[in-house]
Amino acid sequence: MHYIYLRLYFNMQAINELLDRVIFRMGDYSLKLLAIVNVLLIIFITLIILWFIKKMLFRRSEIDEHEKGNIQAIYQILRYIGWLIAFGLALETMGIKVTLLLAGSAALLVGIGLGLQQTFNDVISGVILLTERSIKIGDVLEIDDDVVKIQTIGIRTSKGLNTDNISIIIPNSLITTSKVINWSHQSDKTRFRIDVGVAYGSDVDKVIKILEESANEHPEVYERELAEGRIMGFGPSSIDFQLLFFSKNTFRIGSVKSDIRRIILRKFNENNIVISFPQLDVHLKSTSKSLP
C-alpha cells in the first residue's frame, strides 16, 4: 500500500514538474504549460456550456418560424457573451491583465477604431438587432428596392435570400440606418396592389367586378372577400383602377401579381375592355395664302 502511495506521489510530482515547465519567455513574462492546459480547459468548458444552452433553448420540436428566430437571437447573444467571458479568463490565466492591456494600448485602440469605424458600426448594429429583435430570422424585408428573406443575423453581417435565390450578405448598419420595410413584422399576411388603366367609355362596374374575380381565382390570395377594386382617378388617356388583395406569399409576390395580371388581361379580352395607352391627336390646319 505504501508503495502505491509513493508511486502516485512521484507520478503527481512528475506531472506538476511538467505543467510547471516554461515554454515561452519574454523579459519578465513567462508562459507555462499549465496556463496552456487551463486555456484549453476554458475553451472546452465554454463549448460544453454553449451546447447545453442551445439544447435547452431548442428542446421543443414544434417551433414555428418566428419563434425559432427569437430563440436564435437569444442564443447568439448568449454565445457572444460566453466567448467574451472565456477570452477574458484565458488572458487572465496566461498572466495577461486585461485592464492593464486596455490601458496600455489606448492609443493603439484609438487608431484601430478609426480604421475599423465601419466594422464597429456594423457590430453595434448587430447587437441592436439581436437585442431589439425588430428584425427576426424568416422576416421578408425590402432594402434598397430589393426584397430579401433573412436567413441568419450575425454580429457584423446578416445573410438573406432574394427573389432570384441569390444569397446576399447585408452589413447590419445598412438595416439599422436605412429605411427598411418589414413585410412580415405585424402579420403573416400583407396587402398588395395592382394598378391598371382602361379606355374611357368602358363599363366601370364590370371592370371592378373583373378585377375582384381575377384576384379570387388565384390560390395565393388570402381572405378573398377582402379583395377590392377601386377607381383611383381620371388620367389623360385612361380611367385608372387599383386592385387590392391580401396574400401570405410575401416573398414570391412578384409571381403572384404576374399571374393575376394574366387573368385580368384574359378577362378584359373576353369582355372587350381595352387597356388604354397614351394617345396624342394631331390636328392639321390648312391655311390658304393670298397670292399677290
Automatic annotation (TrEMBL):
Keyword Transmembrane helix included in the entry's annotation: yes
Gene3D superfamilies: 1.10.287.1260, 2.30.30.60, 3.30.70.100
Listed Pfam families: MS_channel_1st, MS_channel_2nd, MS_channel_3rd
GO molecular function: mechanosensitive monoatomic ion channel activity
Membrane-crossing residue ranges in chain numbering: 33-53, 73-91, 98-116
Cellular localisation: Cell membrane
Residue span, Mechanosensitive ion channel MscS C-terminal domain: 193-275
InterPro entries to which the protein is assigned, alphabetical: LSM_dom_sf, MS_channel_1st, MS_channel_C, MscS-like_channel, MscS_beta-dom_sf, MscS_channel_2nd, MscS_channel_C_sf, MscS_channel_TM-2
Boundaries of every Mechanosensitive ion channel MscS domain copy: 119-185
Protease is among the record's keywords: no
Mechanosensitive ion channel transmembrane helices 2/3 domain span: 76-117
Family: Belongs to the MscS (TC 1.A.23) family.
PANTHER family reported in the protein's UniProt record: MECHANOSENSITIVE CHANNEL MSCK, POTASSIUM CHANNEL RELATED
Stated name of the protein: Mechanosensitive ion channel-like protein
Native source species: Winogradskyella epiphytica
Lineage, highest ranks first: Bacteria, Pseudomonadati, Bacteroidota, Flavobacteriia, Flavobacteriales
